[in-house]
Amino acid sequence: MSANDPFARLPEAVSFTVTSTTVTDGAAWPPEQFSSGVPGGKDISPQLSWSGAPDGTKSYAVTVYDPDAPTGSGFWHWAVADIPATVTELPEGAGDDIGSGLPDGAFQLPNDARAARFIGAAPPAGHGPHRYFTVVHALDVASIGVPTDATPAVLGFTMAGHILGRAVLTTTAETPA
């Protein structure tokens, strides 16, 4: 376990499965999932599919987090709340400026760049590899009850007592010096 393991101090949760046609667990982000500020980057959120969520799941939240960002608090790239329990997939690009691929009722919270959308990877040049945790959280409530302008950290704090399961896909990115 790494010293900056984002799950180290969170309540235990049942594991279920998340997959993607865009990215592979353990592999590097494709160029399209990099920030538009990086050559070739397009800020396109990955396609996600999940299965095996625990009984009692009433909604989902999706987060993308880089614990290796040189901020002292990591960097939240995407946070989506109130995905209905009947939904088990988000299309590639769902996290655009208007959340065009999100189901009714779901909403994006502002990321650490203060934009309510997916923002791609942009590790500082020469900083080494960064890990990106794309997580589907299975929740025991239909609505997590955070305001649409809440931070992803507030979402995480509010979810902590409602997480039934967690599906994790880890990718990496590095910008050469």
From TrEMBL:
Family to which this protein belongs:
Belongs to the UPF0098 family.
Membrane-crossing residues?
none
Q: Which GO terms describe its molecular function?
A: protein kinase inhibitor activity
Lineage runs:
Bacteria, Bacillati, Actinomycetota, Actinomycetes, Kitasatosporales
Name of protein: YbhB/YbcL family Raf kinase inhibitor-like protein
Name the InterPro entries for this protein: PEBP, PEBP-like_sf, YbhB_YbcL/LppC-like
* Short name of any one Pfam family annotated for the protein: PBP
The UniProt annotation puts the region (Disordered) at 25-49
Q: SUPFAM superfamilies attached here?
A: PEBP-like
Could you tell me the superkingdom of the organism this chain comes from?
A: Bacteria
Q: Which UniProt keywords apply?
A: Protein kinase inhibitor
CDD domains on file: PEBP_bact_arch (cd00865)
